[in-house]
């Protein structure tokens, strides 16, 4: 049973269903942008990337999930520092619980705004229609809540290891109900 409140919600935009998770960070937008885009700062809470974003793609690796996690090629669709970026994976992945379902490509981004020294962050992931989109939200939603809480801890200067995955692990029910 999850002990952490799942915060993702459904939003429709341009005919697409989105998973939206928001956080407020007590830091200027430039600092939050750096925490989300500079490889050394990202590594603290989620992973790192390499390559030249000006080429239109980077290689991303989730270091927070262990040393054996494969790197992923991501196309940079939008990069508007320090307010917005959007990336899309090149390799389709399954979102069924047993890994045998329809394969889809990840597309996600961050939108940042600042008011009075507080930065509002909106994480947005595009979901595919139908049952696969529900599986997708149930699969990734708890993980994004977990990683965004780790981001908040990193920006606040707190220990990200204190954010315990086990309290998020059973959060899929919230996402199945919200998107089902």
Structural class: alpha+beta
How many strands, which pairing sense, and closed or not: the largest β-sheet?
A: 8 strands, antiparallel
Rg is: 16 Å
Quaternary: single chain
Compute the number of strand runs.
Answer: 10
Q: Pick out the low-confidence regions.
A: none
State the distance separating the first and last CA atoms: 20 Å
What's the total helix number?
4
How are the strands of the largest sheet arranged? 1-2-10-9-6-5-4-3
Overall geometry comes to globular
Q: What's the order of the H and E elements?
A: EEHHEEEEEEEEHH
The share of residues in extended strands comes to 25-35%
Q: Mean pLDDT, as a whole number?
A: 93
* Helical residues, percent: 25-40%
Can you tell me about this structure?
The chain is an alpha+beta fold and 180 residues long. 27% of the residues lie in helices and 34% in strands. It contains 4 helices and 10 strands; from the N terminus they run E-E-H-H-E-E-E-E-E-E-E-E-H-H. Strands 1-2-10-9-6-5-4-3 form an 8-stranded antiparallel sheet. A two-stranded antiparallel ribbon has the order 7-8. A hairpin with a 3-residue loop joins strand 5 and strand 6. Helix 3 packs across helix 4. It is globular, with a radius of gyration of 16 Å. The model has no long low-confidence stretch (mean pLDDT 93).
